[in-house]
Each structure stands twice: as structure tokens, then as C-alpha cells.
Write a structure and sequence with these properties.
45% of the residues lie in helices and 16% in strands. By secondary structure, the protein is α+β, with helices and mostly antiparallel strands. It folds into 2 domains: 64 residues; 185 residues, Lambda Exonuclease, Chain A. The strands form 3 sheets. It has a 5-stranded mixed beta sheet with strand order 4-7-8-9-10, with helices on both faces. Strands 2-6-5 form a 3-stranded mixed beta sheet. The chain has a two-stranded antiparallel ribbon with strand order 1-3. The N terminus is likely disordered. It binds iron/sulfur cluster (SF4).
């Protein structure tokens, strides 16, 4: 549509042919106007239909009726926090992380998560910690300065962004600010940062003494040490990363708990459970 609009408004004579150019231009303009009007009508009709669905049937049915285009990524792309709950056993559906790693721009299930409120709280907490880090370290890097992409030999990319990094001499402290309660997956996330971030910049961070620090909104802190990245955890990390890098999808593990929090809709996940199954009542009198 932008192309047609710019063509209509263009007065360029650079490509102007000889002869009855004005007449041809008028006809083209008429055709373009008709096409534009048809596009606008289609858009209006789709918007009206969407409103109808949203009002009558809710957001889920609207997504089902008007799915986003689901695009395949050029190479698997794995964001650190997609796998942390899998690593500590709080989630079982590897397929969800596999799908996110291989596809983008898919329809998302509606969520009541208040992202704006979370962002504000997180920024306030991070500002406080960053001020402390500025006094503790010679150099402090914040958020986007800490983005990393670790390229695996399979072509898959593991990507992440620690909140803060403080450096003095060969001391490096990686910090992540957490507004909520302490959770096992925070430790898993920090371990991934400590292991993969320095490997992305070996020249800058070779032989550094690295410590992780989880800073919570209530003022408590948890230090994380490199030797906690033992063979068992390393094996688990590599197993998950290999599964997500594979072209072969793992099986889905639908459950009302996980599907309830999963933002992949039944447009893409045919096994999604929309409601908890009815429990079976068996009267054996054993408890
Ligand atoms: S909807 Fe359920 S089964 Fe489907 S990917 Fe999400 S958690 Fe897995």
C-alpha cells in the first residue's frame, strides 16, 4: 500500500515516456485508487470481524480466527530464560522451548501479566543496585551493554542479557535484579550467564575471577560461584540445548498447569489443554 501511495504522489519525470503520458498516468491513478479503496474495505471488514469475535468469543477465539504469521527462524535461537525452569525441573514441556527457538511472530495467548508494572519495579531496583556497583567497581556495564550471543557448533545461538556487570582488576561480578521471591530458576539463569558470557568475549574476560550475585527487592542477596557449574548441571544444560538445536521436535508434555502459563496458542500447539481435566473420584476408603 505504501508503494502505491508513493507512486500516486510521485511527480518524478525521470522515467516519463514520450507520447500520451498524462492519459496513461490518469488511468494508472484511477486503477491505483480502486485498488487502494478495495484494500481499505478489506481492512475495515477484517477489523469489524475481529471486534465481533473479541466481543462475543473472547481473545482466544480471535487469535484462532486471525492467527499471526508464524515464521521459521533461519537458525535456532534460544533465549536463556526459556530453559531455566526446564533445567531445575519446574517445567517439563521441552516442546514449548523448542517451538520458540525455531519459530517467531506466532500468535500469543492472552496474559494478565502486567509487563509495564514489572518493568518499572525492575528499573527502580536496578537503578539502586547500579548506584552501589558504581562505588564498588572501576567499570560497570548495564543491560544492553551485556547482551551476548553464544554460537554453538550446530548453528544454534544461545542469547542472554545480564542486568549488571561490575569489573575491577580481574574481579568480575555478574548481577541480576529480581523483583519477586527467590526461585531455583534464578540460580540456573545466573549459572548460564557465568558460563557462557565470558566465553563470548574470551579476549576481554579470560582468567577473570567470576562471581554471580542475585539481588532481590527485599534487599537480600545470593552469591553464585563458578564451581557450582558441575558436570551434572553442565550435562543437563547441554542435553537441553542439543534438544532445542535439533530439527526434530521433542514430544509435547501437556498439563493444565504448564499449558495454563504457556503463551503458545492451540493454533500452533495442537495438544494445548485449555481447561483442567475433571478429576476421577474413586471411593476405596483408603484415606
Ligand atoms: S500449550 Fe502445553 S503442551 Fe503446548 S507447548 Fe505449551 S505447555 Fe506444551
Amino acid at each position: 500500500m505504501n508503494f502505491i501511495s508513493s507512486a500516486l504522489s510521485s511527480n518524478s519525470s525521470a522515467a516519463r515516456p514520450n507520447g500520451n503520458y498524462a492519459e496513461i498516468q490518469d488511468r494508472c491513478r484511477e486503477c491505483a485508487e480502486i485498488i487502494l479503496e478495495n484494500i481499505r474495505n478489506d481492512q475495515r471488514a477484517e477489523d469489524a470481524e475481529k471486534t465481533l469475535y473479541r466481543d462475543r468469543l473472547g481473545a482466544s477465539e480471535t487469535i484462532r480466527r486471525f492467527p499471526m504469521p508464524t515464521l521459521k527462524r533461519d537458525a535456532p535461537y534460544i533465549w536463556v530464560t526459556w530453559i531455566t525452569k526446564l533445567l531445575v525441573g519446574k517445567e517439563c514441556c521441552l516442546w514449548a522451548a523448542w517451538f520458540k527457538s525455531h519459530y517467531k511472530d506466532y500468535a500469543k495467548a492472552p496474559s494478565d501479566f502486567d509487563a509495564l508494572s514489572w518493568n518499572i519495579k525492575h528499573t527502580v531496583l536496578l537503578d539502586t543496585i547500579a548506584t552501589q556497583y558504581a562505588h564498588r567497581f572501576d567499570r560497570v556495564q548495564r543491560e544492553h551493554q551485556n547482551s551476548f550471543n553464544y554460537h554453538g557448533s550446530s548453528g544454534a545461538i544461545l542469547s542472554g542479557k545480564p542486568d549488571l556487570i561490575g569489573i575491577t582488576g580481574n574481579e568480575m561480578r555478574i548481577c541480576d535484579a529480581k523483583t519477586g521471591q527467590k526461585q531455583d530458576e534464578h540460580w540456573a539463569q545466573m549459572m548460564l550467564y557465568m558460563y557462557f558470557y565470558p566465553r563470548c568475549f574470551p579476549q576481554a574476560f579470560k582468567d577473570m575471577n567470576i562471581v554471580g550475585e542475585l539481588c532481590y527487592g527485599d534487599g537480600t542477596k545470593q552469591e553464585v560461584y563458578m564451581d557450582e557449574f558441575d558436570d551434572t548441571y553442565r550435562g543437563q544444560v547441554m542435553k537441553v540445548l542439543q534438544a532445542l538445536s535439533s530439527t526434530e521436535p521433542p514430544p509435547t508434555v501437556p498439563s493444565s498447569t504448564e499449558c495454563g502459563y504457556c503463551h503458545i496458542t492451540n493454533v500452533d500447539c495442537l495438544d494445548r489443554l485449555e481447561a483442567a481435566p475433571l478429576s476421577t473420584q474413586v471411593e476405596l476408603g483408603e484415606f
